[in-house]
Amino acid sequence: MKIEIWSDYVCPFCYIGKKQLEKAIQDTGYDGQVELIYKSYQLDPTTPVDSNVSVYESLAKKYEISFEKAQEMTEGVTARAKEVGLNYNFSNLMEENTLKAHRLVKWAEQQGDVTALVESLLYSHFIEGKRIGQDEVLLTIAEQVGLQREEVAKILVADTFKEEVEADIQEGLQLGVRGVPFFVLNRKYGISGAQPQQVFEETLHKVAEEEGLKPKLTMAGSEDSGICTDDSCKF
User: Mind listing the pLDDT tens digit for each residue in 213-226?
Assistant: First the structure.
Protein backbone atom coordinates (compact mmCIF):
# COMPACT_ATOMS: atom_id res chain seq x y z
CA MET A 1 0.00 0.00 0.00
CA LYS A 2 1.39 3.40 -0.96
CA ILE A 3 0.45 6.62 0.81
CA GLU A 4 1.69 9.96 -0.52
CA ILE A 5 1.57 12.86 1.92
CA TRP A 6 1.61 16.48 0.78
CA SER A 7 2.59 18.67 3.71
CA ASP A 8 4.58 21.68 4.88
CA TYR A 9 6.79 21.74 7.94
CA VAL A 10 5.16 24.87 9.36
CA CYS A 11 1.62 23.53 9.02
CA PRO A 12 0.31 22.62 12.50
CA PHE A 13 -2.37 20.33 11.09
CA CYS A 14 0.25 18.43 9.06
CA TYR A 15 2.01 17.21 12.19
CA ILE A 16 -1.32 16.28 13.79
CA GLY A 17 -2.44 14.46 10.65
CA LYS A 18 0.87 12.61 10.45
CA LYS A 19 0.46 11.33 14.01
CA GLN A 20 -3.15 10.29 13.37
CA LEU A 21 -2.16 8.38 10.23
CA GLU A 22 0.72 6.63 12.00
CA LYS A 23 -1.56 5.62 14.88
CA ALA A 24 -4.19 4.37 12.42
CA ILE A 25 -1.60 2.24 10.62
CA GLN A 26 -0.42 0.79 13.92
CA ASP A 27 -3.90 0.16 15.33
CA THR A 28 -5.17 -1.50 12.15
CA GLY A 29 -2.16 -3.81 12.02
CA TYR A 30 -0.87 -2.68 8.62
CA ASP A 31 2.49 -1.44 9.87
CA GLY A 32 5.23 -2.83 7.66
CA GLN A 33 2.82 -3.03 4.74
CA VAL A 34 2.53 0.70 4.06
CA GLU A 35 5.01 2.81 2.10
CA LEU A 36 4.91 6.47 3.09
CA ILE A 37 6.08 8.99 0.50
CA TYR A 38 6.51 12.60 1.57
CA LYS A 39 5.65 15.28 -0.97
CA SER A 40 6.58 18.96 -0.79
CA TYR A 41 4.14 21.83 -0.41
CA GLN A 42 4.82 25.43 0.61
CA LEU A 43 2.05 27.38 2.29
CA ASP A 44 3.89 30.67 1.78
CA PRO A 45 6.96 30.54 -0.46
CA THR A 46 7.28 34.35 -0.18
CA THR A 47 8.27 34.23 3.50
CA PRO A 48 11.73 35.84 3.82
CA VAL A 49 14.47 33.38 4.78
CA ASP A 50 15.79 35.82 7.39
CA SER A 51 12.37 36.73 8.82
CA ASN A 52 12.19 37.58 12.51
CA VAL A 53 8.40 37.81 12.58
CA SER A 54 6.61 35.67 15.14
CA VAL A 55 3.75 33.39 14.14
CA TYR A 56 1.38 35.57 16.18
CA GLU A 57 2.53 38.71 14.35
CA SER A 58 2.22 36.92 11.02
CA LEU A 59 -1.34 35.77 11.76
CA ALA A 60 -2.34 39.22 12.99
CA LYS A 61 -1.11 40.83 9.79
CA LYS A 62 -2.57 38.18 7.48
CA TYR A 63 -6.07 38.26 8.97
CA GLU A 64 -5.99 41.92 10.06
CA ILE A 65 -6.63 41.12 13.69
CA SER A 66 -5.02 42.03 16.99
CA PHE A 67 -2.05 40.21 18.46
CA GLU A 68 -4.32 38.91 21.22
CA LYS A 69 -6.83 37.54 18.70
CA ALA A 70 -3.98 35.83 16.88
CA GLN A 71 -3.02 34.12 20.13
CA GLU A 72 -6.61 32.96 20.60
CA MET A 73 -6.66 31.54 17.06
CA THR A 74 -4.01 28.98 17.96
CA GLU A 75 -5.75 27.65 21.07
CA GLY A 76 -7.93 25.18 19.15
CA VAL A 77 -5.10 23.60 17.18
CA THR A 78 -2.97 23.47 20.34
CA ALA A 79 -5.72 21.47 22.04
CA ARG A 80 -6.00 19.13 19.05
CA ALA A 81 -2.25 18.60 19.04
CA LYS A 82 -2.32 17.64 22.71
CA GLU A 83 -4.88 14.92 21.91
CA VAL A 84 -2.25 13.15 19.78
CA GLY A 85 0.58 13.70 22.26
CA LEU A 86 2.06 16.90 20.83
CA ASN A 87 2.73 19.91 23.06
CA TYR A 88 2.65 22.90 20.72
CA ASN A 89 3.97 26.20 22.02
CA PHE A 90 3.12 28.89 19.50
CA SER A 91 4.68 31.59 21.65
CA ASN A 92 8.09 30.22 20.61
CA LEU A 93 7.35 29.97 16.89
CA MET A 94 8.62 32.25 14.16
CA GLU A 95 7.47 32.27 10.55
CA GLU A 96 9.81 30.23 8.37
CA ASN A 97 10.56 29.75 4.70
CA THR A 98 10.55 25.97 4.29
CA LEU A 99 12.12 25.66 0.84
CA LYS A 100 15.50 24.55 2.19
CA ALA A 101 13.86 22.00 4.48
CA HIS A 102 11.96 20.55 1.53
CA ARG A 103 15.11 20.50 -0.63
CA LEU A 104 16.94 18.70 2.16
CA VAL A 105 14.27 15.98 2.30
CA LYS A 106 14.30 15.57 -1.49
CA TRP A 107 18.07 15.02 -1.36
CA ALA A 108 17.81 12.70 1.65
CA GLU A 109 15.33 10.50 -0.21
CA GLN A 110 18.21 9.49 -2.46
CA GLN A 111 20.17 8.37 0.59
CA GLY A 112 17.40 6.22 2.08
CA ASP A 113 14.42 6.45 4.43
CA VAL A 114 13.45 10.03 5.40
CA THR A 115 10.96 9.18 8.15
CA ALA A 116 13.27 10.29 10.97
CA LEU A 117 14.22 13.49 9.15
CA VAL A 118 10.61 14.51 8.50
CA GLU A 119 9.69 13.82 12.13
CA SER A 120 12.68 15.79 13.37
CA LEU A 121 11.85 18.81 11.22
CA LEU A 122 8.29 18.94 12.54
CA TYR A 123 9.33 18.29 16.14
CA SER A 124 12.10 20.89 15.99
CA HIS A 125 9.70 23.55 14.75
CA PHE A 126 6.51 22.93 16.70
CA ILE A 127 7.85 21.49 19.95
CA GLU A 128 11.29 23.05 20.30
CA GLY A 129 10.67 26.31 18.43
CA LYS A 130 13.82 25.97 16.33
CA ARG A 131 14.40 28.01 13.17
CA ILE A 132 14.06 25.29 10.53
CA GLY A 133 14.51 27.78 7.72
CA GLN A 134 18.10 28.45 8.74
CA ASP A 135 21.12 26.49 7.54
CA GLU A 136 22.74 25.85 10.91
CA VAL A 137 19.54 24.38 12.35
CA LEU A 138 19.02 22.19 9.29
CA LEU A 139 22.61 20.99 9.45
CA THR A 140 22.20 19.98 13.08
CA ILE A 141 18.90 18.20 12.43
CA ALA A 142 20.36 16.34 9.47
CA GLU A 143 23.42 15.27 11.43
CA GLN A 144 21.27 14.03 14.32
CA VAL A 145 19.38 11.65 12.00
CA GLY A 146 22.59 10.24 10.54
CA LEU A 147 23.19 12.38 7.46
CA GLN A 148 26.64 13.70 6.59
CA ARG A 149 26.92 17.33 7.67
CA GLU A 150 29.39 18.22 4.92
CA GLU A 151 27.15 16.80 2.19
CA VAL A 152 24.09 18.56 3.57
CA ALA A 153 25.98 21.86 3.64
CA LYS A 154 26.74 21.49 -0.06
CA ILE A 155 23.07 20.85 -0.84
CA LEU A 156 21.86 23.88 1.10
CA VAL A 157 24.39 26.25 -0.47
CA ALA A 158 24.06 24.92 -4.03
CA ASP A 159 20.29 25.51 -4.17
CA THR A 160 19.80 22.03 -5.66
CA PHE A 161 16.59 19.94 -5.63
CA LYS A 162 14.47 23.05 -6.04
CA GLU A 163 12.98 21.60 -9.23
CA GLU A 164 11.98 18.43 -7.38
CA VAL A 165 10.17 20.49 -4.76
CA GLU A 166 8.31 22.45 -7.42
CA ALA A 167 7.44 19.22 -9.24
CA ASP A 168 5.82 17.88 -6.07
CA ILE A 169 3.77 21.04 -5.69
CA GLN A 170 2.60 20.99 -9.30
CA GLU A 171 1.79 17.28 -9.08
CA GLY A 172 -0.31 17.95 -6.01
CA LEU A 173 -2.20 20.76 -7.70
CA GLN A 174 -3.02 18.46 -10.61
CA LEU A 175 -4.42 15.93 -8.14
CA GLY A 176 -6.57 18.56 -6.49
CA VAL A 177 -4.39 19.50 -3.52
CA ARG A 178 -5.38 23.00 -2.40
CA GLY A 179 -4.27 22.75 1.19
CA VAL A 180 -2.29 20.50 3.50
CA PRO A 181 -2.08 17.93 4.87
CA PHE A 182 -3.35 15.91 1.93
CA PHE A 183 -3.06 12.13 1.80
CA VAL A 184 -3.34 10.04 -1.38
CA LEU A 185 -3.70 6.28 -0.96
CA ASN A 186 -2.73 4.16 -3.97
CA ARG A 187 -3.58 7.09 -6.24
CA LYS A 188 -7.25 6.17 -5.70
CA TYR A 189 -8.39 7.69 -2.41
CA GLY A 190 -7.72 11.18 -1.08
CA ILE A 191 -7.98 12.44 2.49
CA SER A 192 -7.86 16.20 2.98
CA GLY A 193 -6.84 17.62 6.34
CA ALA A 194 -6.12 16.12 9.75
CA GLN A 195 -9.22 13.96 9.75
CA PRO A 196 -10.24 11.82 12.76
CA GLN A 197 -8.27 8.60 13.12
CA GLN A 198 -11.37 6.60 12.21
CA VAL A 199 -11.35 8.12 8.71
CA PHE A 200 -7.78 6.94 8.17
CA GLU A 201 -8.57 3.48 9.54
CA GLU A 202 -11.63 3.02 7.32
CA THR A 203 -9.68 4.05 4.23
CA LEU A 204 -6.74 1.82 5.15
CA HIS A 205 -9.07 -1.16 5.48
CA LYS A 206 -10.67 -0.35 2.13
CA VAL A 207 -7.32 -0.20 0.32
CA ALA A 208 -6.04 -3.29 2.13
CA GLU A 209 -9.10 -5.26 1.07
CA GLU A 210 -8.55 -4.25 -2.54
CA GLU A 211 -4.91 -5.32 -2.35
CA GLY A 212 -5.56 -8.50 -0.43
CA LEU A 213 -3.51 -7.36 2.56
CA LYS A 214 -4.10 -8.85 5.99
CA PRO A 215 -3.42 -7.01 9.27
CA LYS A 216 -0.70 -8.36 11.50
CA LEU A 217 -1.63 -10.05 14.77
CA THR A 218 -1.16 -7.93 17.87
CA MET A 219 0.42 -10.17 20.48
CA ALA A 220 -0.68 -9.88 24.11
CA GLY A 221 1.20 -11.03 27.19
CA SER A 222 4.62 -12.66 27.28
CA GLU A 223 5.76 -14.70 24.28
CA ASP A 224 7.44 -17.40 26.41
CA SER A 225 4.81 -17.84 29.11
CA GLY A 226 3.49 -21.43 29.27
CA ILE A 227 4.19 -22.61 25.75
CA CYS A 228 5.17 -25.91 24.15
CA THR A 229 7.05 -26.04 20.86
CA ASP A 230 7.88 -29.02 18.66
CA ASP A 231 11.05 -29.59 20.66
CA SER A 232 10.05 -29.00 24.26
CA CYS A 233 7.75 -27.49 26.84
CA LYS A 234 8.90 -24.68 29.13
CA PHE A 235 7.97 -25.74 32.67
Answer: 887 655 555 565 56
